[in-house]
Amino acid sequence: MPERYGNRRDVEEFEIESDEEEDEMQGVGRRVQPSTSRRPSINDFQDMEDDPNLEDDDDELEVEEFEERSASASNARRPIRIVPDWTENAVQGEHFWKPTSASGDLCCLNEECIKSGQRMKCSACQLIAHQNCIPLVNEKTQLACKPTFRDVGVRQYREQSTTHHHWVHRKMEKGKCKQCGKAVQGKLFGSKEIVALSCAWCHEVYHNKESCFNQAKIGEECSLGNYAPIIVPPSWIVKLPTKGNFKSSIRVNNKANVTIAGSKKKGMSKRQKQKEEKKEPRAFIVKPIPSPDVIPVIVFINPKSGGNQGVKLLGKFQHLLNPRQVFDLTQGGPKMGLELFRKAPNLRVLACGGDGTVGWVLSILDMLNPPITPAPAVGVLPLGTGNDLARALGWGGGYTDEPISKILREIGMSQCVLMDRWRLNVTPNPDVEDDNVPRSKDNVPLNVINNYYSFGVDAHIALEFHEAREAHPERFNSRLRNKMYYGQMGGKDLILRQYRNLSQWVTMECDGVDFTGKLRDAGCHAVLFLNIGSYGGGTHPWNDSFGQSKPAIDDGMIEVVGLTTYQLPMLQAGLHGTCICQCRSARIITKKTIPMQVDGEACRVKPSIIEMSLLNKAVMLAKRKHGRGDVQVNPLEKLHLTILRITMQQYEQYHYDKDMLRKLANKLGKMEIESQCDLEQVRNMLNAKFEESITYPKVSQDWCFIDSCTAEHYFRIDRAQEHLHYICDIAIDELYILDHEAATMPQTPDQERSFSAYSQRIGAQNERRNMDQQGRSGSTGTQLPYISKRMFCNYYYRKKRFEL
């Protein structure tokens, strides 16, 4: 029985190894397939054909060949990573190593093992190797990790959209064989024999026997297992080729220092050139296949939350999902991940961390321009303490080592709900002078409320705790010690009663009604504005029996509660505060510096005027009780596209300059198209519109689509590949078509008026010429040349292009 099934990639081609070679190798078995590399075709170079200035560059080809030959050698020298590389240096099959101390884990190199360094395990495929053996593992392509992206060119990424099994040899395996149903038995005394094979994607396990696993399974398509609806397939993530690569839509001629994409950049202004130089090139792009059956989930993990829980969760999610849909928030924040997956259908976000982590993700969603539509639903996996938002959504107060598989299943079955978010506008109080309190600020730490906003004694305790922890972090390494400090500060304020006169320092209006007198009557030491029901680690200050309606996170109202130093500790016993009102807007005027906190972030704020109003409603994921009900999936969004036509002359001259082509393109009309339509279907729709509609100008049959959103420059879509591409692949708000036989007649009203004036002038000139020839004119002026309609159109087009 062969110990390995798969293939070995040489420098230039794939070769299927013989049975004798397979007996000597152990590790990862990969499917046997023909080489995906091929000779460049006419489609690969069709943009370069259009360029009259294109020159052959033998040095360029030599550099490409050298890079290709040295790729395997550089793999051995690449650094050890725990998260994916999103730069142009990313390598297919790269492992994500983490230390392991589990007994029975043996190095995958067997006889070649150096037996030096700490044992490491790949989070994605669970391969084991010593730290000093990792360079040898990188050299062996049969030991590569499961593929996480596609490295094909901007034109071929749709040619293969299926995912195949990635078989990994196991010396120890838990579980049952899918073929025979029997448990996998491990060998005794540290045997190096391969006992099973398992897929790194769907996690199916088979005995290493001919009766259970045969060679036919190597090329089988993988279903991605139980989590297929939420896994991002590697075919969705496309690595963009760099400039100078033959797979790129543009090339760079180093000799002339000219970009060969149609012409030299003579048409670009100085500002455009500076903007082009500052723009960071994208190394990856996500090309999802639109389907209502998929619910992709991208995971953001804050490793600093919950002690060491975040680091452990990072590896667990990388094992069950595509590692490229799991992001470490310490590596640049959530913006890159949200921008990458903005076009994914039914997108959901899982924020693993505290309430601050969730607020961070929501704030980045607000900043994206253009915003993601429809907005992705955000779920919470609570880490650490507090986690009031997670409690309000039903996810609990903390992660208790539940199986990640159970969490992913609950995220897939969760319910989408809306949550109010409130804006805080803080301006200085012009009627009061600054009291010069040390470390006071002009604004609150956050200007958006997700959970709560408060001022008074509770914000003072939170601020004292944060300042003490910053000064002596070594004293706050225990959850019990932190709670003891909070109790100590609360007891101190209970005796000193520093904020007993809070109602004399503030004026509060809610929906235009003055509630300052009610604060004075209740003797409030703190005022709390609650957007959710939970506060301070699971307490409930608002009494649901008060008011006309029961509070909800999407009712457009915020609850106002007054607290005293006596009521604060009693909240832990299940008691409530003093309910003031429910309101849709509020205005607070402070007359001295007062501590304030927003979602747990506290600071001292100078005398100010604080105005609160509803900002928006965020889409959140609430845990469905007992897993009942159907999964809530939104219908796929329809694209509202503006159809723009570009002539061949414009494309040849400016297809490297998107801004110029937008100015030159002629608007044909607007259409509403389903996002799951492929380009063949869209072509039929457009041709029907062109033939039937009077408002659409005539378009020749020889037109093609232009991809305006994949690469940094425009490029044409081959008509033979239109059935492979979806409309969402090439267009966002504007759909460009290239008309090879487009007339140069004017399209806009201004151009039509200008054209009419020129036409009358030329018509009069031609009429005078005819009269002179027939001898019916008494004029003795010079004879004017005859100008044809074609000559005039060409002259008019050149003149308008010069003006642009």
UniProtKB/TrEMBL annotation:
Residues 263-273 have a biased composition (Basic residues). Residues 1-11 have a biased composition (Basic and acidic residues). The keyword Zinc-finger applies. Residues 12-25, 46-59 have a biased composition (Acidic residues). Residues 33-44 have a biased composition (Polar residues). GO terms for cellular component: plasma membrane. One of its GO terms (biological process) is regulation of signaling. It holds the Pfam family DAGK_acc. GO terms for molecular function: ATP binding; ATP-dependent diacylglycerol kinase activity; zinc ion binding. The keyword Ligase does not apply. Coiled coil: none annotated. InterPro entries: ATP-NAD_kinase_N, DGK, DGKI-like_dom, Diacylglycerol_kin_accessory, Diacylglycerol_kinase_cat_dom, NAD/diacylglycerol_kinase_sf, PKC_DAG/PE. Its EC number is 2.7.1.107. Residues 292-428 form the DAGKc domain. It is an enzyme of class 2 (transferase). Keywords: ANK repeat, ATP-binding, Kinase, Metal-binding, Nucleotide-binding, Repeat, Transferase, Zinc, Zinc-finger. It catalyses: a 1,2-diacyl-sn-glycerol + ATP = a 1,2-diacyl-sn-glycero-3-phosphate + ADP + H(+). Residues 1-59, 262-281 are annotated as: Disordered. PROSITE patterns: DAGK. Transmembrane segments: none annotated. Belongs to the eukaryotic diacylglycerol kinase family. This is Diacylglycerol kinase. It comes from Ceratitis capitata. The lineage of its organism: Eukaryota, Metazoa, Ecdysozoa, Arthropoda, Hexapoda.
